[in-house]
Amino acid sequence: MDSPLLNFGIALGLGLLVGLQRERAASLMAGIRTFPLVTLFGAICGDLATPHGGWVLSAGIGATAVLLWAANVPRSGPPADDPGLTTEAALLVMFGVGALAGTGDRTLAVVIGATTAVLLHLRPELHAFAARIADSEMRAVMQFAVVALIVLPLLPEGRWGPYGVINPRQIWWMVVLITGISLASYLAYRLLGDRGGALAAGFLGGLISSTATTVATARGSRAAANGGGSTALPLLVIQIASTVVFGRVLLLVAAAAPDQFVPIVRLPAIMLGMMTLAAVILGWRTRRHPVAPPPASNPAELRLALTFAALFVGVLLAVAAARERLGDAGLYAVAVLSGLTDMDAITLSTAQLARRGELDGAMAGRVILVAAMANLVFKAGAVAVLGSRDLARHVGLLFGGALLVGATLLAVG
After folding, report:
1. Residue predicted with more confidence, 221 or 152
2. Which residues pair with 160 in a beta bridge?
3. Cα–Cα distance list, 138 to 141, 183, 306 (Å)
4. Three-class SS state of 293
5. How many angstroms from the chain centroid is the CA of residue 274?
6. How far apart are CA 356 and CA 245, in angstroms?
7. Above 90 in pLDDT, residue 249?
8. Residue 72: beta bridge partners?
9. Is residue 195's pLDDT more than 60?
10. pLDDT at 271 over 90
């Protein structure tokens, strides 16, 4: 439906939405009338730009800028208490939103307009969030900017090296993906503290590193057991973190091989359901109990990014070599070795092989499941060595059941 009236209606609605927020915020410059007018002006300019050229939009943004300048000209008397440039910036953005609607790009106009309204409305929460970020968290954000915005654009595209599996740009995209997921989880982890309870500790810890979370929780459980504490909460944290591994697998496969998503994740998704059910049962038994989160390190350090890149390249080469020399069966050995400590590299490498048509999607899913089972064995061993005897016994029972289900899926699936 290509109707100018609909375009103008969308512009008016978005202008009213943002104007209402500014009116409630007691902005002295613009509110529920000015914002719709500016957005409609942008829609008019966008509509006129189609037959007459882009100079109309340039003139419109210039006129809006002059309007903002005039509104900020100093006047006699005490200064108005309306600090900052938030309203001015919002007006410029909403002119652009109106222009997008006027040219018929309604979806983008709605997304940007609604996002603007949400950002304006969440002012107290965003300011509180920024105030709570410590220097270490800010350093992590800046290091991620180096990883994603400086290193990535410098890397070349192409398939080089043995077996033609080394693509620097694609490999670093995977590094950015893993680092981004881990960094977002790390920031949430640090900001929540112990207020999120076992669910947050296990979920965010699993997104950062389920192995590190398991090791730290197991160490804490031994001290708690010596003081007569229960192992129920550490068990829940470990179970949730290990469950998140399978959810993370689904997320990585969706990013790396969306066309092969269903055949690859069929078996891991069943394991995710079984692990989730066990976590829900444990959570019901230990609900409303706070738990101190285990320590987490900054996942965006360049050293860690380079380490993962090296590991990823190593797994890529190992998978390609094993498949060429030993056939698909050789992939299982690589999966076991890789999955002992890290699931991301084997998940991404096999998903990419499936995306390029070099590996059957169902086979890729079986390889990932074998790696996940090896990861469970490694974590159970870590708990047995580092944790209390009671925790080790319960983890052994839980993970033993999961391994039995996994072996059954491999046998019949």
Report:
1. 152
2. 166
3. 5, 11, 20
4. coil
5. 24
6. 24
7. yes
8. none
9. no
10. yes
Average pLDDT on 330-347 reads 87
Query: Can you state the angle between helices 197-226 and 261-285, rounded to 10 degrees?
Result: 60
In this structure, which amino acid lies at residue 49? Answer: A
For residues 202 and 194, which has the higher predicted lDDT (pLDDT)? 202
In terms of C-beta distances under 8 Å and separation of at least 24 residues, what long-range contacts does 89-92 make, across chains too? Answer: 90/18, 90/22, 90/30, 90/35, 90/116, 90/120, 91/29, 91/30, 91/34, 91/35, 91/38, 91/64, 92/61, 92/64, 92/65, 92/68
170 burial (CB, 10 Å; 0-12 / 13-18 / 19+) is middle
- The encoded tokens of residue 196 equal 């999120």
Give the whole-angstrom CA distance, residue 123 versus residue 149.
27
> What DSSP state is assigned to residue 166?
B
Q: Which two tokens stand for residue 399?
A: 């993970």
Q: Which of 101, 253, 72 is closest to 174 using CA atoms?
A: 253
Query: What local confidence, expressed as pLDDT, does residue 173 receive?
Result: 84
Q: What are the structure tokens assigned to 301, written together?
A: 């350090």
Are 248 and 181 a contacting pair, CB within 8 Å?
A: yes
CB 46 within 8 A of CB 111: no
Amino acid, single-letter form, for residue 178: I
Token pair belonging to 31: 């509110």
CB atoms < 10 A from the CB of 175, how many?
Answer: 22
Report the C-alpha dihedral over residues 300, 306, 307, 313, rounded to 10 degrees. Answer: 130
Cβ atoms of 252 and 260 closer than 8 Å: no
* Spatial separation of the C-alpha atoms in residues 159 and 326, rounded to whole Å: 23
Q: Which residues, in sequence order, are bridge partners of residue 71?
A: none
pLDDT at residue 26 greater than cutoff 80? no
| pLDDT for 157 beyond 70 | yes
Q: For the chain, percent helix, then strand, then coil, each to nearest 5?
A: 80, 0, 20
- Measure the CA–CA gap between 363 and 354, rounded to whole angstroms: 9
Query: How long, in residues, is the chain?
Result: 413
Q: How far is residue 145's CA from residue 148's CA, in Å, rounded to a whole number?
A: 5
Check: CB of residue 272 under 8 Å from CB of residue 246: yes
What digits encode the pLDDT tens for the residues 354-392? 998 888 999 999 999 999 999 999 999 989 998 888 899
388 contacts 223 by C-beta, under 8 angstroms? no
